Request: fold
Amino acid sequence: MKRLFAWATLIFGMGYFILPLVGLTEFSLSMRRGEYSFDAYAAVLADPRFRETFSYSVVMALLTIVFGVLLVVPTAYWVRLKLPGLRPYVEFVTLLPLVIPAIVIVFGYIRLYNTSSWLPLTGSLTGTNLLLMFGYATLSLPYMYRAVDTGLRTIDVATLTEAAQSLGAGWVTILARVIMPNVLVAVLSGAFVTFAIVIGEFTLAALLNRPAFGPYLQLMGANRAYEPMALAVIAFGITWACMGLIQLVTRFSKHTKAAR
Amino acid sequence: MTALPAAPPRRRLPLNWLGIVPFAAFALLFLILPTMNIVLGAFRNAAGEMTFDNVRGLFTPSILASYWISIKISVASSLLGCVIGFAMAAAVVLGGLPKWIRSPVLTFSGVASNFAGVPLAFAFMATIGPRGLLTLWLMDQFGINLRAEGFTILSFWGLTITYVFFQIPLMILIITPALDGLKREWKEAANILGATTPQYWRMVALPILFPSLLGTFALLFANAFGAVATAYALTGSSLSIVPILLFAQIRGDVLQDPHLGYALAFGMIVVTGIANGIYIWLRVRSERWLK
Reply:
């Protein structure tokens, strides 16, 4: 009886998830009247703006990941090793992007870094791209920091550091060759979440006026019927792939973790 | 060992704090200062003087109505997300389902909670929109015309139903560890003392879970309240919820007074800030139980 109820609940809930996805896929396939076809996908893939915006977002995502890793890993490591007293505060700051809506943050950017300010980032193309990347890094900070910090919890940071130091390693060597390989799985799972966030992000890119995938999606949605559905299926596929990779990576790590 | 004389501490400048400087600088420049700028801007007029006019400007019927519908949508979608998500998590953790089902459900929740924004709007457009799968199906099979019944996707319920899609999986992800933390001994102890299952839930399990539940509710609320992309892709600017209003204001479409924009953003920070303050406080309380 209880099990029956549990199954019913689960199936009802799963239906809620699956139905829109089915609807989305069905719609994206029905561009040709009366039969299913991949016409919408062909139209999308042939659109040069799709390739431009998509590759722009991919590059931004990769840059954000590199920047995020370089920022978060040393910080999380250092806080665990030398400044444990600061941990709650750092953690609080990393959670702030969940409290402050993205639209408020980007509004602040536009006001703070406009052309007449002390740091006119929005004045040049490179500057705006840089600002967008920093914005993405801010949005992914909660996920990245949490992932890395959880990874660091599973290793003995202090002992590893002392061992490396007594072998003559400097800080860069310790971070790159001792700490990084040990938290690689955590870093990767943070990286995939970052990727999934950046690829479809709309608000920041739209308000900073950059040609990213999110605003392109929105524009297509306002003007076309079938193509945006195909794009959304692609976006969903990417999100799914990222999450699948996280699962794969974490499962893989369970085998390599030494018994303690 | 303790007899060894400790080496005289070398007097050095404490340099440990240097390691946190890059992070602190980043957080300051791209998180705290921009937000402060908005908050301060909400209390300044064009000449840079202190004023409460901007905040007072929020209390017009149309802006209050925007906040109200935003809050209503956020509360409704969080409530639905909490209830359905909790039921699903409970089914998976406590319902006696086969073990293998847990991992796919959690993975799927990870995907679905990240599947927000513009693509999500399209998915629901294709399902319950005017020509959506479900709309047409209801029409063909039962002759129910959703539009004639007064339902459009560009409405309170349309948006709420759409938001629930990412609220449920978020709830599942957060509440599953809490449900795992319910010890079997508690249930057994309650049973031995003669408690029925409803009594166990009412007097043992729910009080323990209560902080997590309420806290997650606060997080879901903030999550829905700040969401721009889904609503914008779904409704354009036809449904004036606060994030959309602010978006249009930043784009320069409406509201000529830029400082009213500051005040709008400040109002959003206050609302999500209160919600998350509750979340953090309750989280600390609930973690005392779930060791």
